[in-house]
């Protein structure tokens, strides 16, 4: 088992995000991530570095306080452990380019500012607008995701909500007429999700297995999936909305495609 140590004088979310994105680029089923947050003393730094050496792991860290960052660097050199400073080079580039000085205050990203409350409001809105619960809310949404079942509408909506966007989503079923409000919205607000048929069949089959339903249920047959995808594509063309194929894409990747057009 390989071990990566994520260390921060705040909660470590920034470093963890970078580490998780890196892990996805490898066949890394045997990798574990240990997170150490709210680091305040040099003794804590020394202990983590020694543990990383003991298990032959490496360290990814975001330490704002210069004394802790320097301690991490020196200790890693002393025991020959790889330690990646994720925030330091970016801060130095800001200083060198813009001739400014950092506040050197930990946890600024997570202060309860106006942006934080906007994210909370966006999450609440998105949860209440999930799966077509309130079609009328689509007018207040920043974006509306539509697509057949299991095309990642809900997890994608929640991810975008944590970015501060109010998101509504609606499941498309050939037997149910889409709400008329979809035709009243600005097409730029609508995102149609689609997926490779074989990929969607596999996902639905796993879903049936998880809930203990028969594998041969119509929901997961190739014929049904093809019918639903064809229905969805026809609707997307009528609405004039953007279309994203989510086959094999991580939620973060799909969200990046959506936000690139905002």
Explained architecture:
Pfam families: Kinase-PPPase. Keywords: Kinase, Nucleotide-binding, Serine/threonine-protein kinase, Transferase. It is built from 9 helices and 8 strands. The protein has 262 residues and is α/β, with parallel strands linked by helices. Helix 2 runs parallel beside helix 3, helix 6 crosses helix 9 and helix 7 crosses helix 8. It starts with a strand and ends with a helix. The mean pLDDT is 89.
Biggest sheet details: 4 strands, parallel
Radius of gyration: 23 Å
What is the count of helical runs? 9
Low-confidence stretches: none
- Principal-axis shape equals elongated
Helix percent reads 40-55%
The rounded distance between the terminal residues' Cα atoms is: 41 Å
How many distinct beta strands?
Answer: 8
Give the amount of beta strand, in percent.
15-25%
Please list the strands of the largest sheet in the order they lie side by side. 2-1-3-4
Structural class: alpha/beta
Mean pLDDT level = 89
* SSE succession: EHEHEHEHHEHEEHHEH
Question: What order do the helices and strands come in, and which of them pair?
Answer:
Elements: E1 2-8, H1 13-23, E2 31-36, H2 42-54, E3 58-62, H3 66-79, E4 83-85, H4 88-98, H5 114-128, E5 143-147, H6 153-161, E6 167-171, E7 190-194, H7 197-211, H8 222-239, E8 242-245, H9 251-260
Parallel strand pairs: 1-2, 1-3, 3-4, 5-6, 5-7, 7-8
Helix pairs in contact: 2-3, 6-9, 7-8
Describe the structure concisely.
The protein is an alpha/beta fold. Helices cover 44% and strands 15% of the residues.
């Amino acid at each position: 088992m390989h071990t990566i140590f994520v260390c921060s004088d705040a909660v470590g979310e920034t470093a963890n995000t970078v580490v998780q994105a890196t892990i996805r680029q490898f066949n890394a089923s045997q990798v574990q991530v240990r997170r150490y947050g709210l680091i305040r003393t040099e003794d804590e730094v020394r202990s983590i570095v020694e543990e990383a050496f003991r298990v032959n792991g490496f360290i990814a860290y975001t330490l704002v306080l210069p004394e802790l960052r320097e301690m991490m660097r020196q200790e890693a050199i002393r025991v020959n452990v790889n330690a990646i400073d994720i925030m330091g080079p970016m801060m130095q580039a800001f200083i060198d380019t813009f001739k400014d000085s950092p506040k050197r205050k930990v946890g600024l990203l997570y202060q309860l500012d106006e942006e934080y409350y906007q994210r909370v409001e966006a999450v609440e809105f998105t949860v209440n607008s999930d799966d077509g619960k309130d079609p009328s809310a689509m007018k207040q949404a920043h974006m509306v995701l539509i697509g057949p079942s299991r095309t990642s509408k809900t997890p994608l909506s929640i991810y975008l909500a944590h970015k501060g966007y109010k998101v509504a989503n609606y499941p498309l079923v050939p037997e149910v007429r889409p709400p008329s409000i979809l035709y009243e919205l600005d097409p730029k607000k609508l995102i149609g999700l689609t997926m490779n048929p074989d990929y969607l069949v596999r996902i639905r089959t796993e879903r049936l297995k998880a809930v203990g339903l028969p594998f041969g249920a119509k929901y997961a047959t190739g014929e049904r999936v093809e019918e639903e995808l064809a229905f969805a594509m026809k609707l997307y063309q009528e609405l004039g909305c953007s279309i994203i194929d989510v086959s094999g894409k991580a939620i973060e990747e799909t969200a990046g495609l959506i936000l690139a057009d905002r």
